[in-house]
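During the no-cost extension, the postdoctoral fellow (Dr. R.K.) reprocessed legacy sequence entries with the updated structure-token encoder. One reprocessed record is reproduced below for audit purposes.
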Amino acid sequence: MRGGHGRAWRRLAVYPLAAIFLVVVGNAAYASSSVSVPPTPVLSRQPAHLTRPLATASAAKPAPPPVTTLLAPSAFDLLSADLQAIARTSGGRVGISLQELSGPRRTSLSVNGGLSFVAASTYKLPLLMAEAQQIATGQVRGSDALCYTAGDAEDGWFMDYQPGSCYTRDELARRVGRYSDNTAAHILVRYLGGPDALNRYAGAIGMDHSALWVPNTTTPDDLSQALVNEALGRLGGAAAQGWLYPILTRTASEQGIPAGLPAGATVVHKTGWMPGTQNDAAYVRYGRIAYVLSVTIDGLDDGHAWSLIARISARIWRYESGRPDFGPPVVVPPASTPAQNRD
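Re-encoded structure tokens follow.
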């Protein structure tokens, strides 16, 4: 009996120990389920030649040298440079004023255009514009009789003036515009109201820096501004133009601006001449092209001055007849890369 009791007691002692052991092992197994396991790499299905590593930087092809892009001078820039060079090397004092009246980009160009020059007979341009505007608005008529007095006399184209002789306004204007006759101009100035009235009118049409008659000076820009206002219809519109333009076209003096233009061009212009001074102010039309150009020159003899005006006119025509809006870019290729020395 004692031996049976002993075995029973030993079994009773072993069972609790076994239970404790199972609890400890179970807890350890539960705790191990929360441990992170590194993922297994996914095998690529790409072919081996597509999964090779990228080439290293040392194996990359060198970048080509940069291409330099330059903008060439525009045709307008070249025109401006040429006109400045012509004026600078002329041997005289030259003023140029250009105003475009056609095309998508209507630009202006002035070389000494604000300087004062002797006006000579260009004072007759605003005088005739005043006559045209008065006729267009009904203030006067072309058939009006205007009479000569001894104070009007000055050497000129016509010699048929006698005290008491009268002429129509149209006839006097024709003599002034086409032949630049001085006595006819004096008669028109007197009937307009005298030199003060002429200067007031000139100022009203944009000739702000001119002093006509006495001391009789003007600027190329002033002459151009007057012609621009006339061409835009601001001085009596089509009626004034219809009276004025014919008497300023194909005049007795065509050796200036018209001489630098093609035969088909229409040139409405007024010249002015005296020893040492040659001027020409023109409204030029040819097809789609229209612009105003005034050139004044002091200090050259007649032949050189008129030839210079014609040269300036021809240079401007060359630009206007093929005027581009923008200069094309010029691409300069990169220099060739020297070959490597393999020796």
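The two ends are 110 Å apart (CA to CA). Residues 1-55, 326-343 have pLDDT under 50 and may be disordered. The remaining legacy entries will be reprocessed before the final report is submitted.
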